[in-house]
Amino acid sequence: MKFGVHVNRAGGLGNALAAARTLRCDTIQMFSRSPRSLRPGLVNEEEATLFREGLAAAGIGPLVIHAPYLLNLASPRKETYEASRDALAHDIVLARAVGAEMLVFHPGSHLGSGVDAGIARIAAAVEYACEKACHTSHGGSGGRRDEGVDRMDAVLPRLLLEMVSGSGTEIGKTFEEQRRIMDRAPSVPLGVCLDTCHVFTAGYEVRTMEGISRVLDELDAAVGMQSLALVHANDSVGDLGSHLDRHANIGEGRIGEHGFRAILGCSRLSHLPFILETPHTTLDDDARNLAALRRIAGEAVSW
Ligand SMILES: [Zn+2]
Ligand SMILES: [Zn+2]
Questions:
Q1: Which ligand neighbours the alpha carbon of 67 most closely?
Q2: Which spans in the chain are helix H?
Q3: CA distances for 95 relative to 10, 166, 239, angstroms
Q4: 195 alpha carbon to ligand 2 midpoint, in Å?
Q5: Any idea where the domains of the chain sit in the sequence?
Q6: What confidence tens digit (pLDDT) does each residue in 8-21 have?
Q7: Collapsed DSSP state (helix, strand, coil) of residue 175
Q8: CA 79/CA 76 separation, integer angstroms
């Protein structure tokens, strides 16, 4: 199985690569920019090339980019909406520049305007962002046009809708909502990211084999198992159905070691990259969680 962590790219991509190597990650995720800012997180071509080559040499992949939390593609406020879809377009270009296979984002919050309207806005925004990204080169504000792009999925990273805990007016707390977004944006290579903390607090029981089987059957019926491309492995401070988005160290939250044993033993998930987003101040915290995940996976009985 492939395990990795969300690494910090502050101070440059070289730091992110060094952290990934030190932690002996199989795969990594990083933010496209500061998580609470919509200002572009630019990288230069040389830095991107060195990073890509470094990852390849260390055998680390896939690389996943996470868009900032501030993005709200479902916002009824024109200014926020337009800034969000432009930010997503930029992040798609950045993801391509650094060789990321996947770009994960939270679908958005409708802020009282209703789920239907929110879903329509998200779908339109991802289509807009992909279209714009296909005609923009990295770093160019005016953008040189890439010639000969007729199949978007040939040049785009896979765009993953993250399952969210459903706090406030968040969209994407059920597989059904994810399916409705995907249905409305058929030209975009969309997929789903399962965050263990988020699905659990959204109300899905993922601590038992029976629970996981039911969850995956529901996922399969809504979007198809082939849509599931990534797992965020996080324990949860909040309880089942609490809609609380607070991650805990592996084994120390409400999912617990027992729950992760069931999750990590599941053969329907074992081909997916598992990336940690557990609380961290130093690399030691990541190392501990990564070790816990690998140990539990090693002990888990495959089912
Ligand atoms: Zn996320
Ligand atoms: Zn997550």
A1: 1
A2: 13-22, 45-58, 78-97, 115-134, 152-155, 175-184, 196-202, 209-222, 256-265, 283-299
A3: 16, 27, 34
A4: 5
A5: 2-299
A6: 988 889 999 999 99
A7: helix
A8: 9
CATH architecture of 2-299: Alpha-Beta Barrel (3.20)
Token pair of 175 as six digits = 């597989």
- Which ligand has the minimum distance to the alpha carbon of residue 68? 1
Give CA–CA dist 67/35, Å, rounded. Answer: 7
Residues paired with residue 73 on neighbouring β-strands, in sequence order: none
**Burial class of residue 131, CB neighbours in 10 A (0-12, 13-18, 19+):** middle
Report the DSSP beta bridge partners of residue 31: 66
Task: State residue 257 phi and psi, 5-degree precision.
Answer: -60, -40
Ligand 2 centroid, distance to 67 Cα (angstroms): 11
Q: How far is the CA of 73 from the centre of ligand 1 (A)?
A: 14
Which token pair is 182? Answer: 């995907």
The band of 39, judged by pLDDT with boundaries at 50, 70 and 90, is confident
pLDDT tens per residue, range 243-291: 999 999 999 999 999 999 999 999 999 999 999 999 999 999 999 999 9
Report residue 117 as tokens.
């309207």
